[in-house]
C-alpha cells in the first residue's frame, strides 16, 4: 500500500524588513524523500542579499493575532534552502520572514525576549545559584 502525501495548503509569503528587491521574496515548497523519510524542501526565492530568514508554520490560520509559533528553523545569512520533516497532520502553512528586527527596538530577533513587542528588550539570563566555579553533585 502506497502512502500518499497531499499538501492541501501552503502559504508562501516572505517579509523583508530593511530592503526590497524588484520582486518581493517568496517561498516554494517541494516534497522530497531521503532514505525513506519524507521531508519538505522550502526555498526562499527572490531573496534579499545579506538577509537572515526564519521559517514559521501553523496548522490552521483562523486564530487572529500572532498565530505563527516558532520559528521552526532559523537560517544563516543568505541561506535560502531549508529541509524540514514532513508535518503531521499533512496540512500546514509556512511563511519565511526576514528576521532582522520585527519590532524595530534595535535588538535582533535572535536576541530579543519577545521579537513582536518593542517594550521587551534583549533576553537576559542571570544565574544566581550555583555561583561561578561551583560543583554540583
> Which radius of gyration do the C-alpha atoms yield?
18 Å
If strands are numbered along the chain, what order do they take across the biggest sheet? 1-7-4-5
- C-alpha termini separation: 53 Å
What proportion strand? 25-35%
Range of helix content = under 10%
- Tally of contiguous helical segments: 0
**Largest sheet entry:** 4 strands, mixed
- From N to C, what is the helix and strand string? EEEEEEE
Question: Can you tell me about this structure?
Answer:
By secondary structure, this protein is mostly beta strands. The chain has a domain at 14-100. It has no helices and 7 strands. A 4-stranded mixed sheet has the order 1-7-4-5, with no helix packed on it. Strands 2-3-6 form a 3-stranded antiparallel sheet, with no helix packed on it. Strand 2 and strand 3 form a beta hairpin. It starts with 13 loop residues before the first strand and ends in a 39-residue tail after the last strand.
Summed up, what is this model?
It contains no helices and seven strands.
How are the secondary structure elements laid out?
Elements: E1 14-15, E2 26-34, E3 37-45, E4 53-58, E5 73-74, E6 81-85, E7 93-98
Parallel strand pairs: 1-7
Antiparallel strand pairs: 2-3, 3-6, 4-5, 4-7
Keywords for this entry:
disordered N terminus; 3-stranded antiparallel sheet; 137 residues; mainly beta; single chain
